């Protein structure tokens, strides 16, 4: 992941299917921007991400980012004991 020359877009390799306009968030679900362009080889495409106002590249660089909403951690629930009547 790195910053493109000439503008403040973030360039990264894609590990999942994506489309232009898809939102990008951090692990806490904070909106970072959206996919502006997809380019490169079909096997290993790159995405140009246009960061939203107020998002600093230094805070994003090197941290995991997610397409759409971040994965939700499922909470373990205690199994309820059914009582017969």
Question: What would your notes on this structure say?
Answer:
The chain has 85 residues and is mainly β. The protein has one domain (2-65): Probable tRNA pseudouridine synthase domain (Thrombin, subunit H, Beta Barrel), CATH 2.40.10.230. 5% of the residues lie in helices and 33% in strands. A hairpin with a 6-residue loop joins strand 1 (2-3) and strand 2 (10-13).
Fold blueprint:
Elements: E1 2-3, E2 10-13, E3 23-26, E4 31-39, E5 46-51, H1 57-60, E6 65-67
The mean pLDDT is 80
The major β-sheet equals:
6 strands, antiparallel
- Taking the alpha carbons of the first and last residues, their distance comes to 60 Å
Strand order of the largest sheet: 1-2-5-4-3-6
Task: Indicate the proportion of strand residues.
Answer: 25-35%
In the residues, how many domains can be counted?
1
CATH topology: Thrombin, subunit H
Number of strands: 6
Helix content: under 10%
Detail the poorly predicted runs: none
Helix and strand content put the structural class at mainly beta
Write the CATH architecture name.
Beta Barrel
| Name of the CATH homologous superfamily | Probable tRNA pseudouridine synthase domain
SSE ordering: EEEEEHE
Radius of gyration (CA) equals 18 Å
- How many H/I helices? 1
Instruction: Please tell me what the overall shape is.
Output: elongated
Identify the CATH class.
Mainly Beta
């Amino acid at each position: 992941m790195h910053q493109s020359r000439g503008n403040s877009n973030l360039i990264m390799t894609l590990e999942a299917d994506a489309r232009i306009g898809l939102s990008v968030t951090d692990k806490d679900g904070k909106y970072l921007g959206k996919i502006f362009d997809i380019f490169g080889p079909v096997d290993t495409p790159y995405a140009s991400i246009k960061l939203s106002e107020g998002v600093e590249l230094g805070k994003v660089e090197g941290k995991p980012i997610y397409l759409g909403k971040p994965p939700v951690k499922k909470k373990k629930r205690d199994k309820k004991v059914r009582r017969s009547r």
